[in-house]
Every structure is written in C-alpha cells, then in structure tokens.
Design a protein that fits this description.
Blueprint: E1 2-7, H1 18-32, E2 37-42, E3 55-59, E4 65-70, E5 75-78, H2 81-97, H3 101-115
Parallel strand pairs: 1-2
Antiparallel strand pairs: 3-4, 4-5
Helix pairs in contact: 1-3
Length: 116
C-alpha cells in the first residue's frame, strides 16, 4: 500500500514542457485509481507544515518506522525516535489537511485541463 500526499502547488509548477506536465498529471490520475495507491492533494492554505522538503515514512513488518528525508545536500534515513516524533507530527497534520481521494482526483483532473 502506498499513500502519497502532494502539495496542490506541484500540479501547477511547470517542470519541462506542457506535454511533459500533461503526461505526469495523467499518470498521477491513473495511479490514483489503482486499489493499492492513495494519492491525496494537500492544499497549503498558507500553513507551512511539510514544506521542509520531501519525506517518506515506511512502516516495517514489525510495525517500527523508518523515515527518509530529502535535503539540499543529501537524503537522510533515520529510525531515531527523536527524529520520528516531529516527522510523524507533520505527517498527521498533512493527512488531516489532505483532500479525500475523490476530491483529490478532481483537483488533479482540473490541473490536467490546464496542461492540455
């Protein structure tokens, strides 16, 4: 199971040509329709949580967690509880602000129209 939380802004950043963006957004929509993938759009609402960069939290078979964070210099992996606490807090806030799956898909479809 994969759950991805995307800032709404990334659907509107021009990375490459309009054709590239169209393909990328269409791919996100297609992936969001798979049973094992959840993609939710997070509207920023001028609140900074999660803006420190991309991060991933993986839950292992024994229910322990490991986080991977992107930084300007390098990616960091940690299982240190002191690191996981603020990451888990940011993840909870982002999940609380994320649109439901169907609404997220509609936002992605609206973005796709922009790129076509």
């Amino acid at each position: 199971m994969l759950t991805a939380l995307l800032s709404e802004a990334v659907l509107h950043y021009a990375i490459g040509s309009a054709e590239v963006m169209q393909e990328q957004v269409a791919h996100l929509i297609a992936q969001s329709e798979l049973p094992n993938i959840i993609i939710q759009v997070v509207r920023n609402n001028w609140r900074p949580t999660g803006t420190g960069g991309a991060f991933v939290v993986a839950t292992m078979e024994d229910r322990s967690e490991v986080a991977y964070m992107e930084t300007i210099v390098r990616g960091l992996t940690t299982d240190n509880p002191a690191d996981l606490t603020p990451i888990s807090s940011a993840l909870r806030e982002l999940r609380a602000r994320a649109l439901p799956e169907d609404m997220s898909r509609e936002v992605m479809k609206e973005a796709l129209e922009k790129w076509t």
